[in-house]
Design goal:
- The protein is an all-alpha fold and about 475 residues long.
- About 75% of the residues lie in helices and about 0% in strands.
- Helix 4 (about 45-100) runs antiparallel to helix 19.
């Protein structure tokens, strides 16, 4: 089931992120200019082409934000499975717009397709990670949660491979490159109906005990799953008087304040960890190292493959070492690599061999990111919220991610222009502060039920246990229980 979820899940946003880069950008810009020339008899100015291309790139983030905002309501009302099936149809519509844009001589169809792809990404990024976390037994929860990141990086790698000139990155085949996601969506559309909805959703939100037991047997086999079922029953009992919480209720709920704070910091630390800056600088570093221009795309592909295998390694060790250690340890290693990279980039004009050191440091940074924070962040976010608050919490995280992606994309080129390689020092500061914070304040969630994790968070409130109050018959005042 993980394979089916991944094919139509986070694999596709990863693919979208990589295929719009070179050489696709070059072919689409030529197509825009050629279409305009055939329509109006005069070519576009370079500034206008750049503006239209920027709109094609950025409208994906607008769609992602919209999809994320809708996801919480869709998951509560229809469940993750039905939401993903509807999302597959949306992806197929977007793929048709992309695939026939050149035939129809309409760059507007690319805009529509990118917008629809963005909406689908906002939905499936939240659905895939939550679905994986809910269908996995407690002992494999870390492995399952990191699986979403493995497919995201696999999508990036496949996008880079298929975008090469030897495959679909040509003048005649680029529409097919942009439309190939429709095939993956179709595969999930026809295969996902054979799998069940998640057991916690069936038991807690649909109150279907028989359906929950049947789903557990189908997903986990005929073994003894009494411990997992008892944990879900405890969560159900604790949520008996609590309705599914909205985004505003999650933000206002005192008992969820620490979880919300940690989730926001996790999301922002991933946005500001320097990964995007590394990918931005990769081509420049390779050129400075005097590598053959034709070889650079293949070496850049090697960076993506390195991230992919690092995520696979993370999924195999996260349940052994725990989330907390991978977070603070990963951030510490990344900070060290970036500090050395600033030094190497500053000295590479004086010492030619420093460019080779920069390449090695880039690969080491990607490995540190893939083994540590990449998988641990998603796992922690999945585990610190119960069923009533999880969908709305992921909406908040998604909004921060999509807005951060948009803002960073707008201002980062100006920061690079002003600071050069010293822009990495900003990310070093973020990584050090994040690592210290998570080392001091993040409880370990490995091998614990949702109720045990919630109990541990409640003790952080200066010795007072805060009880959830967002319910249909909630009292007007919060209830406190002093812990001696």
């Amino acid at each position: 089931m993980m394979l089916v979820l991944g094919i139509g899940g986070t694999l596709l946003p990863g693919f979208h992120l990589s295929v719009v880069n070179y050489p696709s950008s070059m072919h689409i810009k030529r197509f825009i200019n050629k279409t305009w020339l055939e329509r109006y008899g005069s070519p576009l100015h370079q500034e206008t082409i750049t503006l239209l291309w920027s709109l094609i790139v950025s409208i994906y983030c607008v769609g992602g934000l919209l999809g994320c905002l809708c996801s919480g309501y869709l998951f509560v009302k229809y469940g993750k499975k039905k939401s993903l099936l509807c999302n597959n149809m949306l992806i197929m519509v977007a793929a048709l717009h992309m695939g026939f844009s050149k035939t129809a001589k309409s760059f507007e169809m690319i805009l529509i397709g990118r917008f629809l792809y963005g909406i689908s990404a906002g939905i499936c990024l939240n659905a895939h990670s939550q679905y994986l976390g809910e269908i996995s037994p407690k002992k494999l929860r870390g492995f399952a949660n990191t699986n979403a990141l493995v497919f995201l990086t696999l999508g990036k790698v496949l996008g880079q491979i298929m975008g090469l000139r030897e495959f679909l990155g040509t003048e005649s085949l680029w529409p097919l490159l942009l439309a190939v996601c429709g095939i993956a969506a179709f595969v999930q559309l026809v295969s996902l109906p054979f799998f069940p909805e998640s057991p916690p959703y069936l038991l807690i939100q649909k109150e279907d005990t028989e359906g929950c037991l049947k789903a557990m047997k189908q997903l986990w086999g005929d073994g003894d799953h009494k411990a997992e079922f008892d944990d879900m029953m405890k969560e159900k009992a604790a949520m008996k008087s609590i309705k599914t919480m909205s985004v505003l209720e999650v933000m206002k709920e005192p008992a969820l304040r620490w979880q919300l704070c940690i989730m926001i910091l996790l999301t922002m630390s991933i946005q500001l960890c320097g990964l995007n800056a590394i990918y931005f600088y990769t081509f420049e570093v390779f050129r400075t190292a005097r590598l053959d221009e034709d070889l650079i795309p293949y070496i850049a592909l090697g960076v993506g493959i390195c991230e992919f295998f690092s995520n696979i390694l993370c999924s195999s060790i996260i349940d052994r070492f725990g989330r907390r250690m991978l977070l603070w340890g990963g951030y510490g290693l990344m900070a060290v690599m970036l500090a050395f990279l600033v030094t190497a980039l500053s000295l590479q004009n004086q010492f030619s061999w420093m460019a080779c050191c920069s390449i090695i440091l880039i690969f080491l940074f990607i490995i540190s990111y893939g083994i540590g924070p990449s998988g641990a962040v998603m796992s922690v976010m999945m585990e610190i919220f119960n069923q009533s608050a999880r969908s709305s919490a992921f909406v908040i995280a998604g909004i921060i991610s999509w807005m951060g992606l948009t803002v960073i994309g707008m201002i980062f080129p100006f920061i690079v222009e002003a600071l050069g390689p010293f822009c990495f020092l900003i990310f070093v500061g973020v990584l050090v502060i994040s690592g210290i914070f998570f080392y001091l304040f993040l409880p370990e969630t490995k091998g614990k039920s949702i109720m045990e994790i919630t109990e541990e968070f409640s003790t952080i409130h200066f010795g007072k246990k805060l009880l959830l109050t967002a319910g249909k018959n909630s009292p007007m005042e919060h209830t406190f229980c002093t812990k001696l």
